[in-house]
Amino acid sequence: MLPKQIRRMELVFAFASLIFFFNSPLLQAQDYPTKPILMVNPGGVGGSTDLTMRAVTSVAKEYLGQPIVVETRPGGGGSIGTEFVARANPDGYTLLCGGPNWNSTLPAIDNTSKGPDDLVAVCRINYTSGVLVARADAPFKTFKEMVEWAKANPGKLVFGHTGPWGGADVSWKIITEKTGIKSRVVPHEGGGPALIAILGGQIQVSGIAGTQGIAHIKSGKLRGLAIMAEKRDPDLPDVPTVLEEGINCAYPNWRGVLAPKGTLRPVVEKLAVAFKKMTENETVIKMIKGFGDDIQYLGPDDFTKVWRQEYEAYKELAKTFKK
């Protein structure tokens, strides 16, 4: 081969190498983010996940250099928005407002939506227990009275949940099986719509996040029947737990950030660090506390472990439902 041809080929290879270098995923991860980030909320507007994520991301530009825009894509109990994110380019510019309804119970029990095998955990923002609430004018004041009334009026009790096979739906199924009561179940696309429905009188009972229920319980519009956790809520000290009522059906309600499978670890870590700083922001903390909640941050590895454990637990629970 002639020297000029060799030289030309060397230049071509050198140019190709430069193109590959400047377009390599790792280099792009170093510059990430260079444009606004979309975060999809697959639940309803005004729910605890929506409120929490909008509060946290309100200061995103301060720590990422780019804003995070929260967009609501409800439907299918959260599966529609989740599927959208799972199919998105794993470049860090499309994220999911994660939650147990659409990322643990649905994939584990109904084999729909996406779980820990399909998405990447970025971080957990916080975690709260659910609370079983009734309208203040309901013909019962306690959990035991609700059971007695439902047995005396079979099929007349109307329960509204936050999505099919969501935490509240699963908990209610356990409650009805253990107590033997019958009810009419009305599905809603998230905690926001369920809260509106019970306040408006369309349903009598619902399982919602404590974040949503505390203010309305304290104002007298709703009545707390049971905390769906092992311990009582310090903000609702007079409301017993489901365990105290003889039923084990905890309803964990976490909010986290998830990304499409294949998202580079450097991008995940950069996001995780930024979200940790957001959750430490005084303005964000004040907003979250205003919802009656607090921050319980977990990084990628710890969150992945906790999420996987929850998912596997629901898979085991599903076996009892299918008998």
What does this structure look like?
- The longest helix is centred in the last third of the chain and has 22 residues, at 300-321.
- Strands 1, 2, 3, 4, 5, 6, 7, 8 and 9 form a nine-stranded mixed β-sheet that branches.
- The chain is an alpha/beta fold.
- It has helices at residues 3-22, 25-31, 48-57, 60-64, 79-86, 100-110, 143-152, 167-179, 191-200, 210-219, 265-279, 282-290, 300-321; strands at residues 37-41, 68-72, 94-98, 119-135, 157-161, 183-187, 205-209, 222-228, 252-260.
- The protein starts with a helix and ends with a helix.
- Helix content is 46%, strand content 20%.
- It has two domains: 11-128 and 253-321, Bordetella uptake gene, domain 1 (D-Maltodextrin-Binding Protein, domain 2, 3-Layer(aba) Sandwich); 129-228, D-Maltodextrin-Binding Protein, domain 2 (3-Layer(aba) Sandwich).
What's the gist of this structure?
The protein is of the alpha/beta class and 323 residues long. The protein has helices at residues 3-22, 25-31, 48-57, 60-64, 79-86, 100-110, 143-152, 167-179, 191-200, 210-219, 265-279, 282-290, 300-321, and strands at 37-41, 68-72, 94-98, 119-135, 157-161, 183-187, 205-209, 222-228, 252-260.
Beta content: 15-25%
Question: Major β-sheet, in short?
Answer: 9 strands, mixed
For the record, give the distance between the C-alpha atoms at the N and C termini, rounded to a whole number: 75 Å
Low-confidence stretches: none
Helix count from the secondary structure assignment: 13
Please state the structural category: alpha/beta
Alpha carbon gyration radius: 23 Å
The CATH level-2 architecture of the largest domain is identified as 3-Layer(aba) Sandwich
Any idea of the CATH topology of the largest domain?
A: D-Maltodextrin-Binding Protein, domain 2
As a percent range, the share of helical residues equals 40-55%
Q: Total number of β-strand segments?
A: 9
Shape, per Cα inertia axes: elongated
Tell me the number of structural domains. 2
Mean of residue pLDDT? 87
Assign the CATH superfamily of the largest domain: Bordetella uptake gene, domain 1
CATH class annotation of the largest domain: Alpha Beta
Order of helices and strands: HHEHHEHEHEHEHEHEHEEHHH
